Amino acid sequence: MLLRVENIHKSYGDAEILKGVSFDMEPGQSKVIMGPSGTGKSTLLRCINHLTEPDQGHVFVDGEELTSKNLNAMRQKVAFVFQDFNLFTHLRTVDNVAIGPRKLRGFDKKAALDLAYQELDRVGLSDRADAYPAELSGGQQQRASIARALAMEPKLILFDEPTSALDPELTGEVVSVMNKLASEGMTMLVVSHEIGFARQAADEIIFMEGGKIIEQGPPSQIFEAPQQDRTRAFLNVIEHGGHE
Amino acid sequence: MPYLVHGLSVAIALLVCLLSLGLVLGLLLSVAEVYGHWTLRIPCTVFERIFRGIPAIVLLLLFYYGVTDFIEMGSFMAAVLALGLRSAAYQSQIFRGAFLSVPQGQMMAARAMGMNKFQAIRDIVLPQALRMSIGPWTNEFSSELKATSLAYVIGVVELTRQAKYIISNTQGNILIVFAVVALMYFIVNRAGNWALYRLENRLALPGFEHRGDA
Ligand SMILES: Nc1ncnc2c1ncn2[C@@H]1O[C@H](COP(=O)(O)OP(=O)(O)OP(=O)(O)O)[C@@H](O)[C@H]1O
Ligand SMILES: [Mg+2]
Questions:
Q1: How high is the ipTM of this complex?
Q2: Which of A104, B10, B139, B200 is the most exposed, fewest CB within 10 Å of its CB?
């Protein structure tokens, strides 16, 4: 088992946002988390790598528990791709990708750049290596941030709505990169309402509401024969164009 | 004239020393204020409020007559400390604003990669914050250049005091001497501003270039 999430609870003030979430992931699996806005999907992802400290519960990566002591080492195994990219503004695209290997993985400058060019090639951005983030389109920025995640050679990548800050005509290029990674065997946990990606690449859909998982299963089951009324209602909304 | 040039060199030496002290200490203060634990943040904020709340000339007198009672220190050193600590307080506000203007998501992305707080500040936030500080720092340069003339009151023989000497020793023309002094300050000020503006433009990131003239 690559990832084990065990009974995660998180409250902000009086509001209990996560009410005990548990699930597992095997190596090479892709899972997509869906659910209405404000349900705690982002909070759950951030709790997995302790960008937000959970109040209760445990996270194990490759059998090792994430604690405050091994935090920085464990985060190198669990990459995070953000909705709004968060590229480093002062670095060229290739340096954004190289900085992780260079500063965290002990690569020398040349080896880090070589790896960075390789990862940029994987996301189809070789020709923009010298551009600064401000000179890239949104889709290119998100692909660059995926390359930055890949350069850490992580065990698992967490994606928090990677396409929802993008104009519709730019989501395709990001989704196709994600499809490709999934087919190459990358383990991915993706919060997204991209039905295309969920149908093609996901091994399992996790449907969340009100801080809990209310239904999970293979896409065929969730999309064709959802057990819960809430799941069915939600899928109706997103399948008919609406984004919740 | 050679006296004035000597006075000018003392003024510039004072300026360089006080700005350097202010830069190093101001950066440390701003990091503590933005990222520090509250036990660190509070004393730093208190320091900053005190030194921004007292007139420069009073600080000079306090350091010269007060502190030199306890620690052996010449008037130049007293001036560097008084004006340098005050500059640190002002510079900390420049850097604080610059740190806060770096989008928070970048800090989060750096931490999510596995950088510790120190690495994230040093490699991600600081290089951007320093770039953004150059503009406001140019103002600080100008005000501190002018503030060096106040060191005159505790007997630092800088440009303004040299001018007074010349006038009383040679009955030189007051207006001409001070006109030359004014011109000297003005030239140093413009030269410094020009150099900083050049630096700002050289370091500007594509997509964030400066518009307009110095
Ligand atoms: N730092 C915080 N402090 C207080 N409340 C927070 C914080 N972060 C999130 N919340 C609250 O927690 C709830 C869940 O937020 P979260 O961002 O996890 O939802 P989400 O499922 O990702 O929603 P969306 O689909 O809109 O992204 C929201 O009501 C939000 O206001
Ligand atoms: Mg969210």
A1: 0.92
A2: B139
